[in-house]
Amino acid sequence: MAADDPKKDSVNCRDEAEKYSKYRKKLPCVIDRILEGCGDEQCYTHIDYEPIPSEKDVIDILKKLREILFPGFFSSERTDPVNLGYNMGQHVSLLYDILSEQITRALSYECFKFDKACIDCREQGYETALAFMESVPNLQQKLAKDVVAAYKGDPAAKSYDEIIFSYPGMFAITVYRIAHLLHALSVPLIPRMMTEYSHRVTGIDIHPGARIEESFTIDHGTGVVIGETSQIGNRVRIYQGVTIGALSVPSDKAEQMRGAKRHPTIEDDVVIYSGATILGGSTVIGARSVIGGNVWLTESVPPDTTVLVETPRLIYRKSGEKV
Hints:
The longest helix has 30 residues. The chain has two domains: 158 residues, serine acetyltransferase, domain 1, CATH 1.10.3130; 101 residues, Hexapeptide repeat proteins (UDP N-Acetylglucosamine Acyltransferase, domain 1, 3 Solenoid). The protein is built from ten helices and 14 strands. It is an alpha/beta fold.
């Protein structure tokens, strides 16, 4: 029989279908075992009647907010002076609907999860979403100052537009400022979901609880970590690989440390170069100081101080030579 005989091909097709069905028939047993595991206390599930926030919708909220915060930059449709009002009305009303629903879900989840006293989660969701939307103009002003600070400090930047469109540091700061505002409005879960999404996209990890003032810049950005109780002043610039973090605590002491200040304070006009690590809740970096690359600090630094690592001794040798 020829290799391209259609009868042989049909036999092979039937064989493949039989093999596939043989293995697929084993799936009900797998499903039963998975369902059995869902009842195990060590298996974390959310199988209940109250809804929880949707990761997809939370990411969608961030995308829609960027369209509102930077009109014309991230919209799928063209925006001009004639249709700006119409487009903005559509964006704002749609965002409000999605945001209020997700906040309601987060509030409801927390009530059930921690057995809190019952509140009207639906109305609270509407009210909190409106309070957030009313703060958007102030948010725009803060982000505008961040854009200007990034441009002034980076000779490679050709325009403000380039920073808004393409700088990962600007994206991370934008998401942080959105999440921090929701955190300040006592919205559970959603702020952390937002900053962790930004972390995945940019490699920059900023906790929504951190307090960061105006004209903040993250240059390059990969590997930056800013912890929950960090306080950062105005016009601070940090580079890639910087950690503003907490000292490690024994696992049996972690609970009593919740809510305590565990991360450093960085005062106004400080520059922190790549790879620097600054740790501890009592550590204060004084205003106008410069922290050099790869510096490790767990103690405070007075204002107007430069901290550097001593230059290492370099060894040069030709191939084959012993050191």
